[in-house]
Amino acid sequence: MLTMLAWPGNALVAAVPPGTDPRQIAPGGEWLVNDLSRPHPPKAASKSEAELAAAAKPPAGATVLFDGRDLSKWKPSKWKVENGYIEIVPKTGNLVTKDAFGSVRLHLEWWNPPVPQGEGQKQGNSGVFFMGRYEMQIIDNTNNNTYADGMAGAVYGENPPLVDASRPSGEWQSYDIEFHRPEFDAAGKVIKPARITAWLNGVKVQDNYELSGPTSYRKRADYAKHPEKLPLELQDHTSLVRYRNIWIEPLP
C-alpha cells in the first residue's frame, strides 16, 4: 500500500510508502530524498555570453579565490592548474579554502567534458559546499535522468532548480549564489535556517530557499551548531570537472 500525495497543480502525484522514516522524505513531504520518480523542471534558455561576462567580474571588496594562475587561496591540494582553470584530480579529496566564510555571495564557472564520462550521478559530478556542509550541486544535466534534487541548479537532496538553465556538455557554466548562514541560540538550536538564492547561467534557479539542514545522501540531516565562519569546499566526486573565475564577497 502506498500513500499518494498531490504534486502542485495535481498534474502529478508522488508515492511515499507508509511508515517511511521521516528523514528519508524530502522537504514538503511529496517525494523521497533523491527520488528518481520526481519530475525534472522545465528547460530555460541561459543568458547570453555578453550578459554572463559582464556579471562575472568581481566587484570591489570581493576576494578572488582563483584568477587562473595558482591555488594560493586554497589549502594544499593535488588538483591541477593549467590553461587558466583548475581541474579535479579524482580521488585526491575536496579543494578547501584557507579562509573561513559565513554569509557570502559566490561566483564560479565550471566545465564538464563534451562527451559524458558516466551517467546519472557519475556524469560530471562535483559540488559547492558552503561552510563545508551545505551543497549546491554541480553536474552535467545534458541527457541526464538523475534525480531532480541532484541536478545542476539543485540544493542537493532538498530542492530541485526552478528551471533547468544549464548549457550543453562541453560548454562553461556559471553560478552566482547568495548564501546566508544559519543562526543558532545558546543551546545550539537553529533559530534561522541557512538560505540560498542562486542563478545558473544568469537564470534564477533557487529563490531564498530555506535549507532543512546539512547536505546528506538519501536522507535529511539535522542542524548542529557550528562556528559562524567555516571554509568553502569544492567537491571531488571522482568526476573530471574544471573550474575557473572564482570570487567571493561577504554578505551582511
Query: In angstroms, what is the radius of gyration?
Result: 18 Å
Assess the beta-strand content as a share of residues. Answer: 25-35%
Q: Helical stretch count?
A: 1
| CATH architectural label | Sandwich
- Please count the beta strands (DSSP E, at least 2 residues each): 16
CATH topology: Jelly Rolls
Q: Note poorly predicted spans.
A: 1-13
Basic shape: globular
Secondary structure layout:
Blueprint: E1 3-6, E2 13-16, H1 49-55, E3 63-66, E4 80-82, E5 85-87, E6 95-101, E7 104-111, E8 126-130, E9 134-138, E10 173-180, E11 183-184, E12 190-192, E13 195-200, E14 203-210, E15 230-234, E16 242-250
Antiparallel strand pairs: 1-2, 3-16, 4-5, 5-16, 6-15, 7-10, 7-16, 8-9, 8-15, 10-13, 11-12, 13-14
Features:
mainly beta, 3% helix, 252 residues, Jelly Rolls
Verbal overview:
- This protein has one helix at residues 49-55, and strands spanning 3-6, 13-16, 63-66, 80-82, 85-87, 95-101, 104-111, 126-130, 134-138, 173-180, 183-184, 190-192, 195-200, 203-210, 230-234, 242-250.
- It has 252 residues and is mainly beta.
- It has a single domain, classed as Jelly Rolls (Sandwich), CATH 2.60.120.560.
- Strands 3, 4, 5, 7, 10, 13, 14 and 16 form an eight-stranded antiparallel sheet that branches.
- Strand 13 (195-200) and strand 14 form a beta hairpin.
